[in-house]
């Protein structure tokens, strides 16, 4: 399965108030392993930030002035996510903004869900940790993901952190001994061994004793009497060729 961990930064909290996307960050996974491919783009929003939004991201209109418009990068962005499953924290927020950006370009661009499936990691976190704080920072702390370098919100940085959080959240590596967190290694960087049938060796077999076989047959005979002469175990067994 191809998955894209995605995050956006915006000029404010609501696209319905005319706010725009200013940054997109994506990390690609293939069969739950990072491929090394990422997508990152700053975007000129052509409007002011809402109060506080610029401080959260550290971005400014001056910095974004020479960056491309969303219309200039739309095709490249859609090509990157096409056919993937998008993993987004609080997906309704990011998808709402991206759908708004696409709607400004015309009907031919459609909606994000026309191109990709969406998995909301916030909903997954709430199912696993009900009643607790499930922000990205809270999950990093709870799952042992190092986010000490996250001083500001950044789309690519947050997507990279969410990648480690999501893999921990959905696989339970630490509980079953597969994770590298104890050694200080992010889950997304752990090279998992490939298991093949040749590594398994001969399967152990448990053979019943004569007394156990006799007891089993006596039990079946009682079942036959209750079932009118036959029971499920008397039915023929067909083995796959």
If you had to describe this structure to a student in words, what would you say it looks like?
The protein has 241 residues and is an alpha/beta fold. The protein has one domain (2-189): 2-Layer Sandwich (Nucleotidyltransferase, domain 5). 37% of the residues lie in helices and 15% in strands. The chain is built from 9 helices and 5 strands; from the N terminus they run βββαααβαβααααα. It has helices at 53-57, 61-64, 70-81, 91-103, 121-128, 136-143, 155-171, 173-176, 210-226, and strands spanning 2-10, 21-30, 33-42, 85-88, 117-120. A 5-stranded mixed beta sheet has the order 3-2-1-4-5. α6 (136-143) packs across α7. Mean pLDDT is 82; it is low at 173-185, 187-205 and 236-241.
In spatial order, strands of the major sheet run: 3-2-1-4-5
Strand content: 15-25%
The CATH topology turns out to be: Nucleotidyltransferase, domain 5
Outline the low-pLDDT stretches. 173-185, 187-205, 236-241
What is the overall number of helices?
9
What oligomeric arrangement do these chains adopt? single chain
The coarse overall form would be: elongated
CATH domain class: Alpha Beta
H/E element order = EEEHHHEHEHHHHH
Q: Report Rg.
A: 26 Å
Summarize model confidence as the mean pLDDT: 82
Strands, count: 5
Classify the secondary structure makeup into a structural class: alpha/beta
Number of domains: 1
CATH architecture level-2 label: 2-Layer Sandwich
Distance between the termini: 30 Å
Helix content bin? 25-40%
The biggest beta sheet reads:
5 strands, mixed
The CATH superfamily is: Ribonuclease H-like superfamily/Ribonuclease H
